[in-house]
Amino acid sequence: MSVLTHVVFVLAALLIYAVRTHTSGQRRHPSAALAWVLFIALVPYVGLPLYLVLGQRKFARPARQAPAPSQPPDNSLQNGAIATLQGMGLPPPAPNRHISFHQDGQAAWDALVSLIDSAHAQLDICTFVLGNDALGERLAALLERRAAAGVRVRLLLDAVGSWQTSASHVRRLRGAGVQVHWFMPLLHNPLRGRTNLRNHRKLAIADNQRMWTGGRNLAAEYFTNDGGAAPWIDLSFSLEGPLAAEARQIFESHWRSGDPGGEPADALSPPTVATLPAATGAPDTGLHRAQLVPSGPDQAEDTFYGLLLTTLFRAQHRVVAVTPYFVPDDTLLTALCLAARRGVQVELIMPARSNHRLADIARARALRDLVAAGGKVRLSPAMVHAKVVVVDDALAFCGSLNLDARSLFLNFELMVAFYSPEDIGTVTRWVDGQFSTLPFFEPVRPSLLRDIAEGLVRWLGFQI
User: Fold this and answer.
1) Nearest to 411 by CA among 126, 200, 130, 250
2) Cα(399)–Cα(278) distance, rounded to whole angstroms?
3) Is residue 62 part of a domain?
4) What are phi and psi of 42, to 5 degrees?
5) Which pTM was predicted?
6) Neighbouring C-beta atoms of residue 456, cutoff 10 Å
7) If DSSP codes are grouped into helix, strand and coil, which group holds residue 62?
8) So what's the pLDDT on residue 68?
9) Do 399 and 427 belong to one domain?
10) How far separated are the first and last CA of the chain, in Å rounded?
11) Which of 291, 390, 443, 452 has its CA 20 to 30 A from that of 88?
12) CA 329/CA 397 separation, integer angstroms
């Protein structure tokens, strides 16, 4: 190939990148955009195909004009959060009859079993990982039993997260009447650019009224580990109320778009949903006020990222965050550091060593910067998989989103914002009870080679 031909190919590849980015409304962090441009320019015969397969970040496009908040925002943390989410097009908080947090893996499993057994008409389950273990077998038996009882059971598995799930396991479920679909199979039209966008949401919804969700995948290590090593520390919860119906709509969109063989939503007959009385007066009405915060390619904005920045800039007393992986972008890290510098007690809790070695390497610079700004970091000897943020004892968030670039900007994720003092207090007590005795992390200045390695891992592994 001549030099001229090579140059023409590089220019054509960059033009494809620019046109596709513009026409699809993609907005990337400058460092991520620069990484793609350099990759395509320097290695065009590899970079262009990878961009076509992995480069899309959003399906939804921003509205021409954001809806105006229904009431003028004030300075309270809760109202600021609600106004931010409303400005990004999300429904307002809703009162729910019941919310129950699972204090450990056994309680989480018992709650999941109870929800599955309670389904009379419809049971929808979405998970990133379905384990090939004893817990997966027990779950399959539960689903088969509900299908045999006439319940319509649907199981949605992420094609990457559950790639190790046994094909015979899936055939057994299908043979028993359980509908099983794969979310975005890897070999189905990869040039749509969606292969890198994975469904990390965890949901179980019964009869459109009851929901089980949080950070736990459906594998033994997230619950009891079946008598082996200690299970991972995680947090999930159950609720009954309107949020379950909202989550069902999210599941429906995945069922249609994740697998081209999925049934259209209008072919379904969802069970009737009993409505709750609207909350009036003071925020604490005796009901559990909460709000779904879906984040990912199906949202025009980076919803939870925007919500998190809003609350960090408004925080006055305490911010505590629990996450298995901490690879923030510069803006999020700056918001945390500024909060710590102005006197807010910023505390980050994560495992001393997670199940992803690259994430542990990439987090080191951010941890040093946070501690230098006055933040505190606690490292747990056990694997922590919970995803929790509490701000000023006035807001609590829990769900599936990790504080890293993949979760914040690429994955389909689901968080729930809690506004009722009872629920915020429960989450805060769980965090303090689990981690308050852990010693604080003391950073060590890295060697030159270690510093270079951290930068390379962070740039190559977490920006594109």
Assistant:
1) 200
2) 25
3) no
4) -85, -35
5) 0.82
6) 12
7) coil
8) 52
9) yes
10) 29
11) 390
12) 19
Six-digit token string for 19: 């046109």
CA 398 to chain centre: 9
Question: What distance in Å separates the CA atoms of residue 462 and residue 464, rounded to the nearest whole number?
Answer: 6
Structure tokens at 332: 């999020």
What is the share, in percent, of the chain residues with pLDDT greater than 70?
82
pLDDT tens-place string over residues 289-345: 999 999 999 998 999 999 999 999 999 999 999 999 999 999 999 999 999 999 999
Please check whether residues 81 and 138 belong to one and the same domain: no
Average the pLDDT over 257-268 and give the result: 44
Q: Which residue's structure tokens are 């990790």?
A: 402
Q: Are residues 85 and 187 in the same domain?
A: no
Q: Three-state SS for 398?
A: strand
Quote the CA–CA distance of 365 and 245 in Å, as a whole number: 41
User: Per the domain annotation, does 383 fall within a domain?
Assistant: yes
Place of tokens 């496009």: 61
**pLDDT at residue 402 in the model:** 97
What 450-458 contacts at long range (C-beta under 8 Å, 24+ apart), as own/partner pairs, is 450/364, 451/365, 453/361, 454/361, 454/362, 454/364, 454/365, 455/365, 457/358, 457/361, 457/362, 458/327, 458/362, 458/365
**Domain tally, the chain:** 3
User: What CATH number does the domain containing 240 carry?
Assistant: 3.30.870.10
Do residues 110 and 83 share a domain?
no
Residue 278: inside a domain, yes or no?
no
- Which of 325, 296, 308 lies closest to 385, judged by CA? 325
Domain enclosing residue 12, as ranges: 3-54
Same domain, 445 and 379: yes
Cα–Cα separations (whole angstroms), residue 259 to 202, 208, 263, 412: 17, 21, 9, 15
Q: Coil, helix or strand for 340?
A: helix
pLDDT at 2: 82
Higher pLDDT, residue 167 or 29: 167
Average pLDDT rounded to a whole number, residues 57-75: 55
Among 382, 385, 368, 398, CA closest to 458: 368
| 302 & 400 share domain | yes
Q: How far is CA 118 from each of CA 115, 146, 204, 213, rounded to the nearest angstrom? A: 5, 9, 12, 16
pLDDT at 25: 57
Rounded Cα distance, 210 and 118, in Å: 9
Specify which residues 99 forms β-bridges with. Answer: 239
Give the tens place of pLDDT for each residue, 19-65.
776 666 566 665 567 667 777 887 887 777 877 766 666 666 655 55
